[in-house]
Amino acid sequence: MEIITDLHIGDAKQVLKDIPSDSVDLIFTSPPYADQRKSTYGGIHPDEYVNWFLPITGQLLRVLKPTGTFVLNIKEKVVNGERSTYVMELILEMRKQGWLWTEEFIWHKKNSYPGKWPNRFRDSWERLLQFNKEKQFNMYQEAVMVPMGEWAKSRLKKLSDTDKLRDESKVGSGFGKNISNWTKREKAYPTNVLHLATECGNKNHSAAFPESLPAWFIKLFTKEYDVVLDPFMGSGTTNIVAQRMKRNSIGIDIVPEYYEAVKSQLNEVQLYLLEPKTEYAEAKLNGRK
Amino acid sequence: MEIITDLHIGDAKQVLKDIPSDSVDLIFTSPPYADQRKSTYGGIHPDEYVNWFLPITGQLLRVLKPTGTFVLNIKEKVVNGERSTYVMELILEMRKQGWLWTEEFIWHKKNSYPGKWPNRFRDSWERLLQFNKEKQFNMYQEAVMVPMGEWAKSRLKKLSDTDKLRDESKVGSGFGKNISNWTKREKAYPTNVLHLATECGNKNHSAAFPESLPAWFIKLFTKEYDVVLDPFMGSGTTNIVAQRMKRNSIGIDIVPEYYEAVKSQLNEVQLYLLEPKTEYAEAKLNGRK
DNA sequence: GTTCCGCATGAATCGATAG
DNA sequence: ACTATCGATTCATGCGGAA
Prior knowledge:
The structure is a homodimer.
Chain A: E1 5-9, H1 12-15, E2 24-29, H2 38-41, H3 46-63, E3 64-74, E4 78-79, E5 82-83, H4 86-97, E6 100-109, E7 125-132, E8 146-147, H5 151-157, H6 161-171, H7 177-184, E9 187-188, E10 193-196, H8 212-221, E11 227-230, H9 237-244, E12 248-253, H10 256-274, H11 279-286
Parallel strand pairs in A: 1-12, 2-3, 2-11, 6-10, 11-12
Antiparallel strand pairs in A: 3-7, 4-5, 6-7, 8-9
Helix pairs in contact in A: 3-4, 9-10
Chain B binds a DNA duplex through loops.
């Protein structure tokens, strides 16, 4: 089956109107922060931010499948020595719009931007707000499990009688599930704190977030051939990662240069995929070592 | 000079009225969370939480020095599959009251409560909201730079292996590149993310937060002989740490048993301080190894 | 005196059951 | 319908006893 990556140039609010209702499995985006990126987006004043964003979230609510998820990467900036409140106001307004605010993940940026101020430390975290349409949504937790802590090694060496008993009782009618339970014990479910480094020495275009960030949420909230949407595509990280992971995706950006840049990157990948020697393509798909 | 630790039994809203205006350098507290700790505090319904807390923050605003800081440890609970919004509403209301919302620190709890749910991962972070009266406030950044290497070192060292493993696994299946190096991190300036584990060991009285949490903020926002206030004393961690660090402190709690327990602990420490052999006292002061 | 291993214990959350 | 209670689930940590 072919993966379609559908890119659009234009204002998100307008372009979204052409997307059918209940058609998207995951929306992952990092919108222009208030008063940031003046050169590219014209800058939105913090006071106007909520009013500017709400019509877009209204459209996003429409295009998302009932089982889908909206992950919003955002952080309030400091204005006049104080943290702005527009993110909190946005959450409250989106709930009135019909969104459920399911969870707030924290992205802990290990190598945050350097600097020193007299009354403030470096800001090394961002919000990843999870919104849903319904209480029941698709979540593939197994896809993002992580190795357990050190202590697990000793435990696995010699598994106690209680563990054996527990596993057997769990199995019940199942057969051969013992082994899966065993191997599962080596991995644990993650928490709502993500611990990733920002990609610094990257290519020409600097992405707002590292590829592992959308990759994590794509794994968690979609399966292959699902549809991923990023209404503020930027350098296209979400779409490029989605394509590599065999997810269809839609990208929207108002800046034509971004469109071209992303498109060329996508073509590049697709070319590799068509090559008979797929060694490099495989590497790309699986992540470079 | 003698350190005074002034403990009160009673409702915070009432007791605070007896404290003079502009007299406290740091307020560090962890109020009972909504619908939590019913047995001891009766539990406050999420819908009533803001109205319950606002009169208290009003008093806190009065007693705090213009150069002082209020650090509030709080986290919203899940209600009906959604995160509650009372913390956000509280911030908005406190700003109307006159508070400046200067910063939000994240406390990353390594050992969060276990459990598995179909729609949610374990919650492993809490908010540490920093409020101020004025834009200019006292902040002793150097004080936390030294201890950062001290107390965080042992813990981070211990955790590093696991974290490395986890990060690599994330990266391997994802597309990230940069693996953090912890040696650099030890020398780095602190950020607004704190990386501590909860103390779950049985030490007669279980505290809501580890001692290193108030210790960090006491170092950051006060100097010796300053006044620290905790209007929800609980097991008295804030006051005990304050006394060890040679800060005067005020503690308020409505539960008489807590008053007695904290008082006995304080005497204990003072005894050790008076002993000629100060080895144990020193260990206490510097935090156990 | 080290090191290792077993064990209890958390500011949790969901779904089912009961009034 | 709406609220209160209960059992099941799960994992990092530090303490104490043992090798």
